[in-house]
Amino acid sequence: MAFKPCSQRAIEFLTSAAIAAGEKTPKGLKINLNCTIDEFATFLGTSRQTLSMFLNMLIKNNIMEKKGQKTFFIKDIKALRNFKF
């Protein structure tokens, strides 16, 4: 995992979390991160700024929605898996 780009590591983590623990809602698969974005970035081995930029790209492409600091809705899991940065 360490030799993959940050974007790929984030996609794999979000996809796995959505499949394993995602709650189906009208907005998509809801996942709650039990950490801050800074902690998430550290886990992925990247900076908070890099991770935030990537997550914002997913939001702008309507693949994901963020609610608060730790809740995400994956609107399109296939688009997330296939997203190219």
List the helices and strands and how they pair.
Blueprint: H1 6-21, E1 23-25, E2 28-32, H2 37-44, H3 48-60, E3 64-67, E4 71-74, H4 77-82
Antiparallel strand pairs: 1-2, 2-4, 3-4
Explain this structure.
This protein has a single domain, classed as Winged helix-like DNA-binding domain superfamily/Winged helix DNA-binding domain (Arc Repressor Mutant, subunit A), CATH 1.10.10. It is globular. It starts with 5 loop residues before the first helix and ends with a helix. A 4-stranded antiparallel β-sheet has the order 1-2-4-3. It has 85 residues and is α+β, with helices and mostly antiparallel strands. It is built from 4 helices and 4 strands. The model has no long low-confidence stretch (mean pLDDT 92).
Brief overview, please?
This protein has 85 residues and is α+β, with helices and mostly antiparallel strands. It contains four helices and four strands.
- Tell the overall outline: globular
SSE run: HEEHHEEH
CATH topology: Arc Repressor Mutant, subunit A
Overall tally of structural domains: 1
Oligomer: single chain
The residue ranges in which pLDDT falls below 50 over 5 or more consecutive positions are none
Estimate the helix proportion, in percent.
40-55%
CATH superfamily: Winged helix-like DNA-binding domain superfamily/Winged helix DNA-binding domain
Q: Mean pLDDT score, rounded?
A: 92
Number of helices: 4
Count the E strands: 4
